[in-house]
Specification:
It contains one helix and five strands; from the N terminus they run βββββα. By secondary structure, the chain is an alpha+beta fold. It starts with 8 loop residues before the first strand and ends with a helix.
């Protein structure tokens, strides 16, 4: 995990135009590509974003350019399953 990203809150727009706040948990590199592990943060806990109760993780592909970083939904099921399995295997090794 890159420590400078710890407690970083990202605002994104959901499928229905609603604002969604996500906390960057970790950046992982799988198959030469960077993926972000994010958890949804409720607006009412934003000032104290250390609420780690039973967080559901979201995996998104990261696209970096010189001046910005964007997050993209992984639409390919095979790619998503490959990344999720790599993260699961990595977590088992660390325990």
């Amino acid at each position: 995990m890159e420590k400078e990203n710890e407690n970083q809150i990202i605002k994104t727009i959901g499928e229905h135009g609603e604002e969604i706040y996500m906390k960057l948990q970790e950046i992982v590199n799988v198959g030469g590509k960077d993926y972000a592990l994010l958890s949804i943060v409720e607006e009412d806990v934003l000032p104290n974003s250390s609420n780690d109760e039973c967080e559901e993780l979201v995996i998104m592909k990261m696209n970096k350019s010189e001046d910005e970083c964007t997050f993209e939904i992984i639409e390919d099921d095979d790619e998503f399953n490959f990344v999720a399995q790599a993260i699961t295997d990595s977590d088992e090794i660390e325990e």
